[in-house]
Amino acid sequence: xxxxxxxxxxxxxxxxxxxxxxxxxxxxxxxxxxxxxxxxxxxxxxxxxxxxxxxxxxxxxxxxxxxxxxxxxxxxxxxxxxxxxxxxxxxxxxxxxxxxxxxxxxxxxxxxxxxxxxxxxxxxxxxxxxxxxxxxxxxxxxxxxxxxxxxxxxxxxxxxxxxxxxxxxxxxxxxxxxxxxxxxxxxxxxxxxxxxxxxxxxxxxxxxxxxxxxxxxxxxxxxxxxxxxxxxxxxxxxxxxxxxxxxxxxxxxxxxxxxxxxxxxxxxxxxxxxxxxxxxxxxxxxxxxxxxxxxxxxxxxxxxxxxxxxxxxxxxxxxxxxxxxxxxxxxxxxxxxxxxxxxxxxxxxxxxxxxxxxxxxxxxxxxxxxxxxxxxxxxxxxxxxxxxxxxxxxxx
Length: 396
Description:
The chain contains 19 helices and 4 strands. By secondary structure, the chain is α+β, with helices and mostly antiparallel strands. The chain folds into 2 domains: 4-224 and 353-391, 2-methylcitrate dehydratase PrpD (Orthogonal Bundle), CATH 1.10.4100.10; 229-345, CATH 3.30.1330.120. The protein has a 4-stranded mixed β-sheet. Helix 2 (19-37) packs across helix 4 (53-62) and helix 8 (125-136) packs antiparallel against helix 9 (141-151). The longest helix has 24 residues, at 92-115.
């Protein structure tokens, strides 16, 4: 009986992308490149300067938390697989092979894995990065299965890192682990593909991955705001009613399934990074800022007296539902100097069911840097590779 690694490797080796798959790959390339370029001046760029290409680009691409998300698996697929493919000279097919494996592995790990505190982007990401790199390097199905097994020791990462550089760095480590594993498999290293099955069971996964459907089942969610995906829905909901607020906000009550705020571990954030993982700060920036952009997630913005006052007035009430970031809906009531305001929202802008328009993507790219739209106009995998190598050279 074939192991899970062998089944996934055979699927990846046989993958023949269709037009919709290729369109998703192109959008993912440009979105990942844009959010990586947006971090050009972030302190992590210097910190990560000595890391290899895949690790460096993945860490920098994730530090602003503006990259896409596969909702069903709660994994940031593209920020792992795009840098890996670029670093190993691959193209859209290599991306789709790695992305498809990551979506299926993350879904097999399930919500219970994420709820236990694992960072699924890293746990599912390392074996998937091995497939992306291996496909780019031209490995056989047997070698891809070996590479996945060789990536198992690096398949870790925890949510305690959220709000620190550790979150983006561990994503970079997962990406580089996949490259290393693929290169070792290419060189002739051996490993038991059953190691992936054993690991999957140890970290709480269950069942055989579903190999049917498009390359990336369920599609990818594109972020509209540069913060954790769990904050996208409450921010979007409050933006629908903020113009109706009169006078002073007296309090805000947020009702939502507890699962939908699992990554939001900072109730009283004091830094910009912590603010990206805070439900109370989602409320504060949605009410205080015309558009919660990069400036809304600086240390100074989070530390504003008005923001800190709003944090203290947020009341959270959990409702039933515990299986994903878009479970149910968010229900928010704002008490102010006028009649109480009430709003509900199930699907935020950018969700797979509400995909961004070309105009919305163009606006996001512009927010990532006024030169970004021009830099990415007509870009393909080769030109983005050259652009990142020029923008983020490795320190020797």
